[in-house]
Structure formats: C-alpha cells, structure tokens
C-alpha cells in the first residue's frame, strides 16, 4: 500500500476523533462513501477497522442496561478502553506505523483479506 499523504491521515484522524463522540456513525459514513465511490484503499481500510472496532464495543453498551445499578461504573471502563484504543490508532496513523484494534471482531472483511484468502485456496 502506498504511503498516505498528510491530508489523508488528517481526514482519517478527524473521522476517528468524531467517532469518539458519535460512535459508529462516522466510520460507517466514511466506509459507505469510500466503497461506493471506489476511493483510496487507505480510507477504506481505516474506516473498516474502526467500524469493526465500534461494532465490537457496542454490545457492551447494551449489556450495561441489563446490569444492576451497582455496576454503574462499567460504562466508564468501556469508554476508557475505547478512548485508549482510538487515540492509539490516531497517533500510529500520524506516525505511519501499523496499528490494529486488539479485540475487534472482523464483521466486515477487507478487500486485502479477501484477496489473500482467494490466493491461499488456489
């Protein structure tokens, strides 16, 4: 993959920053737009990874509503973990270093992963 420009990195970092406030909506919007318009693979992969991470975290927010009131701090732990992982991704993108979300379930497969599976099966 070609090295992304500073503009592309800033756009992705802004998307991740907005996702801290709005959750899954900004990565979903970027993923849909970049896939529909066949844009740069950098945008597609970063939005796909962020979307998978947010979709993995979302059930924990739902679980919170079924827990007793004594576990009210559970939501703050989830938010702190989410904040740490997204800030880590933002910094690593800015430094051109590889990054990943440690426990994100791959709900949406990337085009690179799909190509690798097809070549391994041949």
Automatic annotation (TrEMBL):
Q: What is its main location?
A: membrane
Q: According to its UniProt record, where is this protein located?
A: Membrane
Q: Which UniProt keywords apply?
A: Membrane, Plasmid, Transmembrane, Transmembrane helix
**Protein topology in the membrane:** Multi-pass membrane protein
Q: Enumerate the transmembrane spans.
A: 12-34, 50-67, 73-91
Pfam families in the record, alphabetically? MamF_MmsF
Protein name, as recorded: DUF4870 domain-containing protein
- What does the record give as the organism's lineage? Bacteria, Bacillati, Bacillota, Bacilli, Bacillales
């Amino acid at each position: 993959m070609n090295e992304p420009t500073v503009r592309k990195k800033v756009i992705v970092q802004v998307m991740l920053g907005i996702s801290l406030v709005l959750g899954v909506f900004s990565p979903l919007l970027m993923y849909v737009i970049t896939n529909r318009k066949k844009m740069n693979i950098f945008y597609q992969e970063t939005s796909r990874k962020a979307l998978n991470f947010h979709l993995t975290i979302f059930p924990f927010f739902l679980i919170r509503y079924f827990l007793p009131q004594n576990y009210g701090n559970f939501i703050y732990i989830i938010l702190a973990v989410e904040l740490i992982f997204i800030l880590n991704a933002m910094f690593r993108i800015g430094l051109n270093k590889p990054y990943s979300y440690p426990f994100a379930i791959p709900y949406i497969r990337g085009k690179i992963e799909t190509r690798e599976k097809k070549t391994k099966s041949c």
